[in-house]
Amino acid sequence: MDRNEILRGIPKVDEVVRAARQILDGLRTDVLAGKINEIPHFEEIVESVVGGQNQSPLHRVINATGIVLHTNLGRAPLAPVAVERVRVAAGGYSALEYDLATGRRGSRMKAVEQQLTELCQTQAALCVNNNAAAVLLTLTALCSGGRVVVSRGELVEIGGSFRIPDVISAGGAILAEVGTTNKVRLADYDGACSMATAALLKVHTSNYRIVGYTQEVGLEELASLAAARDIPLIYDLGGGSLVKLSPHEPTVQEAAQHADIVCFSGDKLLGGPQAGIIVGKAEYIDQIRKHPLYRALRMDKLSLAALEATLKLYIDGAAADVPTISMLTISSEELHAKATTFLTKIKPQNGLFSTEIAETSGQAGGGSLPGEEFPSWAVAITTTVMPLHTLEEALRKHEVPIIGRIHKDKLLLDVRTIDITDFPIIARTLDEIFRGGATNE
Ligand SMILES: *Cc1c(COP(=O)(O)O)cnc(C)c1O
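# pyridoxal-5'-phosphate complex -> structure
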């Protein structure tokens, strides 16, 4: 870029004033609404004026944390074919609810439901906006007015306001807790089953694990009890996977072999868009589909396009093309090789910082595979010219933010979640930061 072109990029004074006025008006509104009790420091206000301009929350960031399903960074990135399907569906008309064979109205969900029944080996399937909606809808449609039996060890809270006891009551059902935090037996479930019991509910403890003196009831036993009582066994599987990722966790297919209804997320281990998927017996799915809440919680066409493309990869035996799956299953040797390549791209400036390869350990994240260790490799950066937290902040606040983490006096950039096409931009960013902001282009 020549200098004149760069100069033209400087914003006009009134644009800056307008941005400042917006921030100050916002502060005034927040004080009057009782949202804040204290005005931030002057520097912070200036920073939000400067930084707030191009920082949409959907701004692209580089995830160098190694956490594949990072809830704060948007969970699962889509496969390129899914992104392409979204682009086509978004930019034009589609046969979303039109049957091209007959010229009549069609179902927007049919294709995806067929893919799901094939993949999960179930009689029927249904999709809604997210898994919280899937669980709420299932409980409302099948259990309203009845009792729902759950183990005390599974009364989960998944970030925000999703708490199993609250979801059960929001669905108009009554929670019947059984067992203790660490132990539950079949007799506990059996004893809680009465005339008014509408379902047995099993909840995947997605973000914690109870270890030590513990006991739980196997899915098969629960299924037999539910069948004997003629009530459904509902399984909120959280981040259900269609491929075996862990010896300790059931896949969706395994869960659906025993449970009558299985609910799971589209954007956790499946690696698709935000969605809530319900699979299982047709008699229950039909009942759920008829509930008025179903229409209110339906998926939009863009997510539907992404889900269909993602499921097609599984059907075609190309699960490795789903980024979430490839990032979770990449071998340690491949990660080491990736880190070595990354290291050669980063050339420390006259000893201002130094780099090395370091072994790290991470988690799948996003409320998936709790306690499962994912050993990985990172490029570790050390420097004496600035505190590490300053470097971490500079990377985080850069034009394309790079999110790393500090561990034992090193800044770690874990290569598991970094796309190799992003290596040059990270190298350039480090260069700029250590040269005090001057670009090398
Ligand atoms: C993540 C999770 C949910 C919520 O799923 P979303 O798709 O985020 O709405 C519900 N139940 C369990 C057990 C979960 O792990």
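# post-check
Residues 130-132, 135, 156, 158, 162, 203-204, 206, 236, 238-239, 265, 276, 367 surround pyridoxal-5'-phosphate (CB under 6 Å).
The radius of gyration is 25 Å.
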